[in-house]
Design a protein that fits this description.
The complex is a heterodimer of chains A (776) and B (158). With 776 residues, chain A is α+β, with helices and mostly antiparallel strands. In chain A, a hairpin with a 5-residue loop joins strand 29 (588-591) and strand 30 (597-601). In chain A, helix 10 packs parallel to helix 18 and helix 17 (664-683) packs across helix 18. The radius of gyration of chain A is 27 Å and the shape is globular. Chain B has two domains: 10-80, Ubiquitin-like (UB roll); 86-157, DNA polymerase, domain 1 (Orthogonal Bundle). Classes of the chains: A alpha+beta (776), B alpha+beta (158). At the A-B interface, helix 1 and helix 17 of A face helix 3, helix 4, helix 5 and helix 6 of B. The structure holds FE2/S2 (inorganic) cluster (2 copies). The site of one FE2/S2 (inorganic) cluster has 12 residues of chain B, from loops.
């Protein structure tokens, strides 16, 4: 029986179509108190005074907290963020005070009665703006902050929070071999995750000292560790649960509301308190995906072979670093795009600005980074009069090549980009060198292409685990620590287990929530790593269970365990399957006919720890950032109306080397959803601020998403080059659909309109301005 | 205009059940369904009319329950996702993989269910027009449109 490679339905599907799937705020307990945040209406201002007097007298109010009540700073890498602003506010939407009250309405009313007196400060409104000579300082003494997880190198007296460097090969040599060069500047706005479920957290502190947390986190084990660290509680006393999550995209991997909800509960004698983001708060107060500015220089010989890449990226870290320093290294590690370049120099700066702080967003900053590289590749192709797919095919990174961080690649680690590009040509019916086509009147059609690669840029000691227990009937329960936010991690791990045990997927039971108390740790459900890491742990657990099943069955069947195999819920003798014993007769111990019993419960345990990763050397970036890469090729076809610069997106295509597709419909859906998000970012989404740094996009009617009918025809195909150390060869594919789509769209529109689109979002107004200089 | 001067008990007809509750005048239907009646299928996504995650049917039409006061819903026929059982539509959503996280799904189902009742012959353009009221951040939308199409086709056949 084969389960891997089948489009088995998500385990939780029936509950999701009946309203019975439970998300964090679908479970209510009577007596819960409500916390409400007072957030900053300014991007940068000194707090002169917070007057809570009127508010504290209002009905239902149990507690009010301000920055004065909190004595520590938070931060995954650099501890630079007060949970409630202290002394000054650094972004629009920053939490300034918190009310805890008996009803939501009382909490909101009281929060409106808190008066904060601000003194305005100048704002940093873009990364490059933050590096200008007299730029206001977002943090006066960033160099003094505690480095929780180095490397990170903030510079006091500047807005530079960090710098990651790549130095590979010999730049002088690289430029000497170049007969063509391109140089271009790019500017991309921050993006919001805009998961349909906003972030929320509930905390209760019991009198035995246990802290019960239930939140929308992608990283329950990280929440556990950080609460333990910030509040000096033993990890075992912090129990974090994540129910089903309503979309995450990296935005729920950061720890924010959990800390505030803990503080709120603590202020009311440990009673259960809930803190829920309104959509407005989710967009303004909780972190976004990074904006990026860049200066890209590429050099190539007359045949189009890349010889040099000099790259500077300035990330819009926003007011606090969160995971930006890790993302800076992730950009650095793959700064050339999936191309062989022997001479590389890359500086990636994290710059503090007065924007909402940035955290991981689907692809860990690879989407904006890929935009810059892939636009530059198209410019290079244009100069060389080369076909855009041909120049990518020529430079495609290959086994034997080295990455910017000097990892030597092999086929298993890398996959096959050339095969992806070839498959894309077929998928599109690509005609090399074809110019944009006039359809009729003002309508022009053009296709833009793009390639991507990504590795995980994850810690060197990330772990995962799996535990299998058996029900007496012989079916299995599988416990893993990966969160289910839509990517199908639980179903995938069930498929892997069913395959290894050669059983029906219906005989594998999962629970769709995660609890740090009973589930084995999975580092974080991020970086598209879950299939790989959890999958490896599941295989390990299955092998452990199989070993025990065989050992016991060998006694009963009077043979060596080596003679045995498992299938369909039985252990059988390989050369005579009629001699077998059913799981149901042994998984809870075996009872001889006369009554004596042996064996006991069978439980499979499996673990995985990533291996052979190394930190990037601060001087030249040498190091190994992830276990493997995923490569792919994408394309977008547009139809542009040259009269009013509106356009339709006709087709969007992705070919990805998935290693092995475990669930075809699931994988296709992930890729299509990724493409849809990428098209949204490219065509309309932007976290926008006015000149004073006020957020202009704090609702879903100003922060616009794609809607039904705007989606193109999707083309999705997979190349399958097995990753040898991955479960059934499967590579990471969760994030990747999004990565090259914005650049492919901009490449298509640039060709169709005859302009260079080096910023986003590509709105008709922007195209018109670029084309006409904004003159009617 | 409806006037509702004093908070008092009222009765809602939800999925055929007559349920009484005492809302505050400012309570939205979404709030009452979820917090008072425990029907959490309808989700808050924006509470501003932008996302459609809260969509329920009121007198056969899809309504964003975050924009309707509970008091306004009295005497009307309310249908929530909990009132859909074993429909062709739900099956089609599962078959087409028309959801990932599933948070938008109840809303899409109710919009699509109302569409199927009112426009059983709907073509793709009509489907798109109806579904534009709802947002999904996970899927590429094609899956959702396919599911609704398949469900319509199957009901037309039978
Ligand atoms: S919650 Fe009602 S439309 Fe978004
Ligand atoms: S499935 Fe997640 S929002 Fe639609």
């Amino acid at each position: 029986m084969s389960t891997v490679g089948e489009s088995v339905r998500r385990k939780e599907a029936p509950n999701k179509v009946t309203g019975r799937a439970k998300y964090n705020m679908d479970m209510q307990s009577p007596g819960t108190l409500f916390a409400e945040l007072v957030t900053s209406p300014h991007a940068h201002a000194r707090i002169r005074k917070i007057d809570t007097q009127n508010a504290s007298k209002m009905g239902g109010v149990k507690a009010i907290l301000t920055g004065d009540d909190v004595a520590f700073l938070c931060g995954e890498v650099l501890e630079d963020r007060p949970p409630l602003a202290k002394g000054k506010v650094r972004y629009f939407g920053e939490p300034v005070a918190m009310v805890v009250a008996t009803s939501e309405a009382d909490a909101i009313l009281a929060s409106l009665a808190i008066e904060v007196d601000y003194e305005m400060l100048g704002v940093v409104n873009s990364p490059l703006g933050g590096l200008e000579k007299n730029a206001p300082l977002v943090h006066e003494r960033a160099g003094d902050y505690v480095k929780a997880k180095p490397p990170v190198s903030p510079e006091s007296g500047t807005n530079i929070a960090d710098l990651a460097k790549i130095r590979k090969g010999d730049m002088a040599q690289g430029w000497k071999s170049a007969s063509v060069t391109v140089e271009a500047r790019f500017s991309l706005p921050p993006i919001d995750h805009a998961a349909m479920e906003t972030r929320s957290a509930k905390v209760e502190i019991l009198h035995d000292g246990r802290v019960l947390v239930q939140s929308t986190t992608q990283a329950p084990f990280e929440v556990q560790k950080l609460l333990s660290k910030y509040f000096g509680i033993k990890q075992g006393k912090v129990v974090v649960e994540t129910p089903l999550v309503g979309g995450a995209f990296g935005g729920k991997a950061t720890v924010q509301l959990e800390v505030l909800a803990y503080l709120a509960s603590k202020a009311v004698d440990g009673r259960l308190v809930q803190l829920v983001n309104s959509r407005e708060q989710d967009l303004a107060t909780s972190p976004v995906g990074t904006g990026l500015q860049a200066l890209i220089k590429l050099g190539a010989d007359e045949k189009g072979r890349l010889s040099a890449a000099e790259l500077t990226f300035w990330m819009d870290a926003g007011a606090y670093t969160d995971s930006s320093p890790r993302m800076a290294r992730a950009i650095a590690a793959e700064c050339t795009g999936p191309y062989r370049v022997d001479n590389v120099s890359c500086d990636t700066y994290c710059v503090y600005t007065n924007h909402t702080y940035a955290t991981a967003y689907r692809g860990f900053a690879h989407m904006p980074m890929t935009f810059c590289i892939e636009r530059a590749m198209d410019k290079l192709a244009k100069q060389l009069h080369m076909d855009p797919l041909q120049i990518r095919q020529l430079n495609a990174i290959q086994p034997g090549d080295t990455t910017p961080t000097q990892v030597t690649l092999n086929l298993s680690r890398l996959g096959d980009l050339r095969a992806c590009i070839e498959r894309m040509e077929t998928l599109l019916g690509w005609e090399p060198g074809k110019a944009p086509t006039h359809i009729s009147g003002d309508l022009v059609r053009a296709i833009g292409v793009s390639c991507f690669w990504k590795t995980s840029s994850s810690p060197q000691n990330a772990i995962s685990g799996a535990i299998i227990t058996f029900n007496q009937e012989g079916s299995m329960n599988l416990a893993t620590g990966a969160v289910e936010f839509g990517a199908g991690t639980k179903t995938t791990s069930a498929q892997i287990l069913a395959e290894r045990m050669d059983m029906s997927i219906d005989d594998v039971y999962i629970h769709s929530h995660v609890s740090t108390k009973v589930d084995p740790e999975h580092w974080k459900t991020v970086a598209s790593l879950s299939t790989f890491m959890v999958g490896r742990a599941v295989l390990d657990a299955a092998d452990d269970a199989i070993r025990q099943l065989k050992t016991l069955a060998a006694v009963i069947l009077r043979c060596s365990p080596k003679d045995l195999a498992v299938s369909q819920g039985r252990v059988y003798i390989k050369d005579d399957p009629t001699m077998n014993v059913a799981f149901k007769d042994i998984v809870h111990g075996y009872q001889y006919p006369e009554g004596n019993s042996i064996g006991g419960q069978i439980m499979g345990r499996g673990t995985y720890i990533v291996r052979h990763l190394s930190p990037l050397n601060p001087e030249d970036g040498e190091g190994r950032p992830g276990p493997s890469w995923t490569v792919g090729c994408q394309a977008v076809e547009v139809e542009l109306n040259q009269r009013d610069w509106t356009y339709r997106i006709l087709r969007a295509a992705t070919v990805i080397d998935a290693g092995r597709v475990i669930n075809p419909k699931g994988a296709r859906g992930m890729v299509m959803g990724g493409m849809c998000q990428g098209l949204g970012y490219a065509s309309r989404e932007a976290v926008r601020h006015d000149a004073e740094g006020h957020l202009l996009t704090n609702q879903l009617r100003t922060y616009k998403l794609m809607r039904v009918g705007e989606q193109p025809k999707y083309l999705v195909d997979f190349v399958e080059t097995a990753q040898i150390d991955a479960p059934y060869g499967a590579r990471a594919v969760g994030e990747h659909g999004v990565l090259g789509i914005p650049s492919a769209l901009a490449n298509a529109l640039s060709a169709a309109a005859g302009i260079e689109i080096d910023q986003l979002p590509a709105t008709p107004e922007m195209l018109w301005t670029l084309k006409t200089g904004g003159i009617l | 205009m409806l006037s509702y001067p004093e908070p008092g008990p009222l009765t809602l007809n939800v999925n055929g059940d007559m349920l009484s509750l005492t809302p505050r005048p400012a309570d939205t239907l979404l709030y009452s369904l979820r917090q008072e009646l425990g029907l959490t299928g309808a989700k808050p996504g924006c509470e501003n009319g932008d996302c459609g995650a809260c969509t329920v049917m009121v007198d056969g039409l899809p309504i964003k329950s975050c924009l309707m006061l509970t008091a306004e819903a009295e005497g009307r026929e309310i249908r929530t996702v909990e009132g859909l059982n074993n429909t062709v539509l739900q099956d089609a959503f599962m078959d087409a993989w028309a959801f990932q996280c599933g948070y938008c799904t109840s809303g899409f189902l109710m919009t699509a269910h109302a569409l199927m009742e009112r426009e059983p012959e709907a073509d793709e353009a009509t489907i798109v027009e109806w579904l534009r009221s709802n947002l999904c951040r996970c899927t590429g939308y094609e899956e959702i449109v396919q599911a609704v199409k398949a469900a319509l086709e199957q009901t037309q056949r039978s």
